[in-house]
Structures are given as structure tokens and as C-alpha cells.
């Protein structure tokens, strides 16, 4: 099993929801124990490469599970050698099967039904080409008392398999050996010996967090009996020469179960944790589960399984599997209960709450539809955080090819806020593209990141009245039109000048910029439609109309009725 959660398979992991528990998954069409499974990204399926059947017979039949449809299938291809007591390891190799098939599911050794029962062969199943082979070089070199081991544990880190422990009934010896296997190395040189574990044992429960390989619990062998242990050690795979170091003991002795490790840089309550799914105490099993916090070197209990089981398959199914029951989540399949002749078919899963990163533009509030030439508008948009985590991100607003502004927002999950941008002056006539977009690198739903619209800049609606040229600047009394909900504003300009006309609230806040550009000499009449910069109807009340030009400023009061 690839108990190390590959970054490419789960970029986003989070913690358990309050009160969450294991749930029953779809019942399998086969009954295996002493086996394993692995999710294969290339097909979005989980594969099980044979196992011990309910009659204590080992079968080579390969089964698949498709998470998106909750369905199992016999793939129709068998492993060359029927083995049990194995882990599945996903590796990239260089055998270059037809169609460029270079990703295979590896089994290191295992137990067969025929004496002497243990093999050191390596088998590989390639899901893309549906091909199963036995490697003819680089057999597993691990030994216990010079005999081939069984019940060693294997795990993948950076495309290298690490196999450790095991025992031999023939010699009554458990192994402390640790080996690494590089599938891309030259044939005959793929195995390397690493520092032995401090405690020789079979069935060590293995997991990876960051670059550390953890060996938890396991069984020691004495007088034909297996004794579960609680000791735990770890090995830094970036500094294997330093050897193993002890970490906190498990709360209870445990072996022959599965563990799931999560890197410390993943968000959520599981970051830096190892979940141990079930407790095996030979010859029995329980429903107990545990969680180890690597940052504090402490253990806690974890929600129990519904079914006591051991020697089961353990699989992390990522969100990339395409939905379905319990996705993403950690899964256990099959396993024995009380005896090998009672193999379970019911699966269980613990769903992982994946934090969603989704910020969106819900509405462009301004400018809308049409604006007068010369008008000054504050672009504005409504932004929502539809994800499950607080986000800090940029929002960009663009109008045509000459205007763009970016602001930063911080939004809590489910929150909506208004983003205001630098004022835009409508100086050119025509139709202009308007785009507001959120810019969050981790956004998982790009479909709602932007809204695209257009704005029409039309000729200034003020009327230059034909009554001669004014001698001075002026702002006439504002004439409201209660029935129309608007006001007529008249002013005079004696010479060419830049000018602005704005509506203010009684508190001095800008409600709307009616005009901001140059004017030729003349008398003008301009309508205000009673709406604010966002196009919303202004409420009834007192407003101030302020006209500013070259060295001139005047203010008139306006009472707007509704």
C-alpha cells in the first residue's frame, strides 16, 4: 500500500468533521483477507491483486473498485503467482510496455499455499495495458535467519519502495532488516540495505509523514506465537545514515492493520498526523483506531470502525477519483474477523472534509449599461467566498484597454463584500468590455472567477441652451421633479474649462458624479435620474449639488422625494 499520500493525488486534505464516524461502503463481490489495494490515477480505480479467500485458499484474481460508480469488477487478468500477506506499491518503472505503460502496481514477496509457503519474487500489475508479470531479476533480499521472510511491510516514498521486517516460521526468527528498491535502477542493482530497525518484528504498521518513515507496533515471534508490540520508531529518509529513533509508544499493542499518513503542510486537522485503522492482537482483532500527532509526539483515540478486522486492505481515495461515496477518504476493505475462514466483504470509509477554495464575482455593481461621456464612475463589484476557508486574494477590474485596477480582499467562508476600485472617467464614446475577476491561485472552481459585461459611453446628455454666452460661472437653483424622481440642474460656463458636477448626501458622501470633463462656454441643463454610482435609487431626503470649475465652486440644496 502507498500509505504515503502523494502530493499529486491530494493537494488538499482537511480534518474530521465534528462527530464524524466510519461509514459502511459498498460490499465487495469478493471476500479477501491478508491482502491490500491501491488507487491508480491513470484509471481512477482501486486494484486488489488477489488474496486469501474464505476457505483459506489463496486466489490470484485481480479485482477493481470504481469510486465514481461504487462498483466492483473482476478485471479478467490474474497475478502470475497467487499470494497473500502483501502490500501494493505504485511505482514508475522503465520497462516500457506497449503504449508507454510505465506505471505498475508492485507486490514484494508474499505467502503462497504450497510449501515452503514464502516467496521473494516481485510481481507487477500494469492497469493501463492490463498486464501482470513476474520480474526475473532483483528478488527481495530480506531474510530472517537466512530464510525468506513473510509479513514484511512495504511503502513508497519518491518512487522508492521501503520494505522492512517480517518473519520466518521455518526458523522461528523475526527480521529487523530494512531494504530500499529503486525500479529505475539497472537490473540486478535495484535493492540497497538500510539501517536495521531497533526492534525485529513482523507486520510493522508503516506510514510516511513528510520525509519520515514510521514503523508502528508489529509482532515479535516466540514459541510459534505472534506477540503484538506498542513500540514505535521513525527513520528520516533524507538522512538514513543516522538510523532509527524511538517515538511515543502506541496506546495499545497493535499489528496487522493499516495506517494513513498526511504531510504537515496539508491544511486541516490531519496535517502531520497518522491514522491507524483498527487494532490487531493475534489471533484476534478489535474496532479500536488511533491517531498519532507527529508534531507533539502524542497519541489520541480515533473513531472506531464498525467491524473488527485485521489483515485488511487500506486505501486513500483522492478527490481526483471523480466523486462517489466517501471520496475523498480513507478506506478499509475486506480482512479477517475471528478466523481466516471468515473474510469480510463490507468496506468502510472515513470521509475527508476537503477544504474548498472558491472565491467568485457575484455581480458587477458599477458601471452598468450606459454612462454619459465625461462622467466619473467608481467601479464596484460584489465578491463572495464560496469556499470553506478564509481567503486573502486580489480582485481585478478592467474597462476597455485603458483602465484596470486591483484591490485585495480578505473574506471569511460564506462572506460577501463589495470591492471598490479607482474612479474611471468615461472620456471616449463607444462600447467597452467590462471584466471583474478574482485571482486566487488555489481556486478550485475557475468557472465563476469572472463576470464579463459591457458599458456604453453615450454623448453627454446635458443640453447647451441657446441664450448667448454667460459672463460668469453660475449654478442655478435645482429644480426637482417629484413625479419623475429626478432633478434638472442648470449651470453656466463663461469660458472653456474642466468642470465637475457631483451629488452629495447631507453627510458629505459622494452619491454620484454627474459630470467630470471639459466644457465649452455656454449654458447647460443636465438631468440627474436619482440613482447612485451603483445604479441604485437614492433614498428620499436632502442632497447637495456641487458644481466646480476653474476657480469656481457652488453648492445647491436638493430635496428628493419618493
Automatic annotation (TrEMBL):
Keyword terms, alphabetized: Kelch repeat, Repeat, Signal
UniProt signal peptide: 1-19
Domain FlgD/Vpr Ig-like: start-end pairs: 495-549
Domain of life: Bacteria
Keyword NAD set for record: no
InterPro entries found in the cross-reference section: FlgD/Vpr_Ig-like (IPR025965), Ig-like_fold (IPR013783), Kelch-typ_b-propeller (IPR015915), Kelch_1 (IPR006652)
Gene3D superfamilies: 2.60.40.4070, Immunoglobulins, Kelch-type beta propeller
SMART domains linked: Kelch (SM00612)
Protein name: FlgD/Vpr Ig-like domain-containing protein
Organism name: candidate division WOR-3 bacterium
Amino acid at each position: 500500500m502507498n500509505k504515503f499520500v502523494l502530493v499529486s493525488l491530494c493537494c488538499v486534505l482537511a480534518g474530521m468533521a465534528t462527530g464524524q464516524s466510519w461509514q459502511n461502503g459498498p460490499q465487495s463481490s469478493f471476500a479477501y483477507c491478508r491482502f491490500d489495494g491501491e488507487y491508480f490515477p491513470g484509471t481512477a480505480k482501486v486494484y486488489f491483486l488477489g488474496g486469501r479467500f474464505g476457505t483459506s485458499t489463496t486466489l490470484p484474481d485481480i479485482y477493481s473498485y470504481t469510486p465514481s460508480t461504487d462498483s466492483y469488477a473482476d478485471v479478467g487478468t490474474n497475478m502470475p503467482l497467487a499470494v497473500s500477506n502483501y502490500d501494493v506499491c505504485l511505482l514508475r518503472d522503465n520497462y516500457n510496455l506497449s503504449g508507454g505503460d510505465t506505471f505498475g502496481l508492485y507486490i514484494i514477496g508474499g505467502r503462497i499455499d504450497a510449501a515452503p509457503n514464502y516467496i521473494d519474487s516481485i510481481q507487477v500489475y500494469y492497469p493501463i495495458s492490463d498486464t501482470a508479470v513476474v520480474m526475473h531479476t532483483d528478488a527481495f533480499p530480506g531474510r530472517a535467519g537466512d530464510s525468506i521472510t513473510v509479513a514484511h511491510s512495504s511503502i513508497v516514498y519518491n518512487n522508492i519502495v521501503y520494505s522492512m521486517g517480517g518473519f520466518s516460521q521455518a526458523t522461528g526468527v523475526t527480521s529487523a532488516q530494512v531494504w530500499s528498491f529503486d525500479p529505475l535502477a539497472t537490473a540486478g542493482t535495484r535493492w540497497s540495505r538500510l539501517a536495521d530497525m531497533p526492534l525485529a518484528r513482523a507486520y510493522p504498521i508503516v506510514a510516511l509523514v513528510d520525509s519520515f518513515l514510521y514503523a508502528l507496533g508489529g509482532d515479535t515471534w516466540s514459541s510459534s506465537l505472534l506477540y503484538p508490540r506498542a513500540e514505535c520508531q521513525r527513520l528520516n529518509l533524507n538522512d538514513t545514515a543516522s538510523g532509527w529513533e524511538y517515538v511515543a509508544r502506541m496506546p495499545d499493542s497493535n499489528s496487522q492493520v493499516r495506517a494513513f499518513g498526511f504531510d504537515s503542510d496539508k491544511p486541516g486537522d490531519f496535517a502531520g498526523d497518522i491514522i491507524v485503522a483498527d487494532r490487531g492482537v493475534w489471533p484476534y482483532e478489535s474496532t479500536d483506531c488511533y491517531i498519532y500527532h507527529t508534531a507533539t509526539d502524542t497519541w489520541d483515540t480515533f473513531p472506531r470502525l464498525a467491524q473488527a478486522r485485521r489483515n485488511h486492505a487500506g486505501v486513500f481515495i483522492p478527490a481526483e477519483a471523480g466523486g462517489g461515496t466517501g471520496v475523498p477518504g480513507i478506506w478499509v476493505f475486506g480482512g479477517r474477523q475471528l478466523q481466516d475462514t471468515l473474510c469480510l466483504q463490507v468496506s468502510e470509509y472515513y470521509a475527508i472534509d476537503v477544504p474548498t477554495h472558491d472565491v467568485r464575482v457575484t455581480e458587477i455593481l458599477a458601471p452598468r449599461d450606459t454612462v454619459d461621456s465625461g462622467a466619473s464612475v467608481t467601479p464596484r463589484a460584489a465578491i463572495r467566498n464560496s469556499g470553506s476557508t478564509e481567503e486573502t486574494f486580489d480582485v481585478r477590474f478592467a474597462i476597455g484597454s485603458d483602465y484596470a485596477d486591483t484591490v485585495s480582499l480578505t473574506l471569511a467562508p460564506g462572506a460577501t463584500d463589495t470591492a471598490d476600485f479607482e474612479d474611471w472617467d468615461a472620456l471616449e464614446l463607444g462600447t467597452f468590455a467590462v471584466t471583474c475577476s478574482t485571482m486566487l491561485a488555489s481556486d478550485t472552481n475557475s468557472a465563476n472567477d469572472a463576470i464579463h459585461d459591457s458599458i456604453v459611453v453615450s454623448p453627454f446628455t446635458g443640453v447647451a441652451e441657446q441664450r448667448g454666452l454667460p459672463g460668469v460661472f453660475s449654478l442655478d437653483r435645482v429644480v426637482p421633479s417629484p413625479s419623475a424622481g429626478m432633478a434638472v440642474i442648470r449651470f453656466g460656463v463663461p469660458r472653456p474649462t474642466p468642470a465637475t458636477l457631483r451629488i452629495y448626501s447631507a453627510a458629505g458622501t459622494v452619491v454620484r458624479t454627474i459630470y467630470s470633463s471639459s466644457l465649452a462656454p455656454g449654458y447647460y441643463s443636465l438631468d440627474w435620474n436619482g440613482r447612485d454610482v451603483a445604479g441604485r435609487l437614492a433614498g428620499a431626503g436632502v442632497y447637495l449639488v456641487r458644481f466646480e470649475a476653474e476657480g469656481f465652486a457652488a453648492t445647491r440644496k436638493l430635496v428628493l422625494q419618493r
